[in-house]
């Protein structure tokens, strides 16, 4: 594969090239990792930036319907939209992928949109990495908006916070106890809460739910990256396509303010730092999976089991023989400690 040719095609915004490039960054094969790194390095020259919007919400809340309606609205405004899905649970059924295809049918047919479903069977670190690199590819391809969808379970909100500029939390209209069901962490990460399905019989409930969440948001600690009035709660209907233009206007205002105040750049810089550290961690772990390390670990663990060696001595011996140049004098309390110390 000629990486320079692929890079040019991605830069021209050719969707098939973007798809091929994402397949490349998703590959775990070492020779593909080398090519993927080269490709991403080459494309960094474009310096293009999209608005990265994270979107999370429980199953059935209307994420796919929202993306279809919202995406089509943006495309109608002349913007190019990429949609990426993250599913750290990897438990997604065939049914819901099928459902996505029909729910995003019109958007997926638009020449100005690109939709990439989540790859299955990958651990959280792998999913996060491939999504981050896929986002970078979409930015280089000149997409104006990259929507990153995740189901609202597990650590997906963290992944989205580490990938996105703006985080939307989609919620359903509900009775009073539903509010307690939303985890604090995900509430705190949200920039805009969208209470979906504010239509027909559900409209009044949606408005009440929205007021409840607006109240809950006011109780949260104020974040430096927020202008007055943020985070905020709004009602929308993805089905009847109402409130979406208001939501987009709020997103743009928020982005403009954060850019002007330096928060945008600061967050991206922090995300880059985080991803570098994550790469280091993953690389270290990968080293331990190498045959040499595995056989050494195997024999040492037998000696530990037999009581011939203490666990800590065996671990020190292991590291001393794998990385003899590394200092062994003081073991860090955790990997975080080593990495966070300047
Ligand atoms: N009344 C109403 N129904 C909606 C709205 N948005 C979505 N729905 C319906 O809610 C159901 C679930 O919508 P999806 O868009 O598939 O929800 P999702 O969050 O993508 O679901 P998963 O992919 O399974 O997590 C479908 O029957 C939609 O038609 C809305 O704004 N109003
Ligand atoms: Mg869906």
UniProtKB/TrEMBL annotation:
Entry annotated with the keyword Amino-acid biosynthesis: no
Organism: Roseinatronobacter alkalisoli
Coiled-coil segments: none
InterPro entries given in the database record: GTPase_ArgK, P-loop_NTPase
EC number: 3.6.5.-
GO molecular function: hydrolase activity
EC class: hydrolase
Name of the protein in its database record: Methylmalonyl Co-A mutase-associated GTPase MeaB
CDD domains recorded: MMAA-like
Domain of life: Bacteria
Pfam families from the UniProt entry: MeaB
The family this protein is said to belong to: Belongs to the SIMIBI class G3E GTPase family. ArgK/MeaB subfamily.
SUPFAM superfamilies assigned to the protein according to its UniProt record, in alphabetical order: P-loop containing nucleoside triphosphate hydrolases
Keyword terms of this UniProt record: Hydrolase
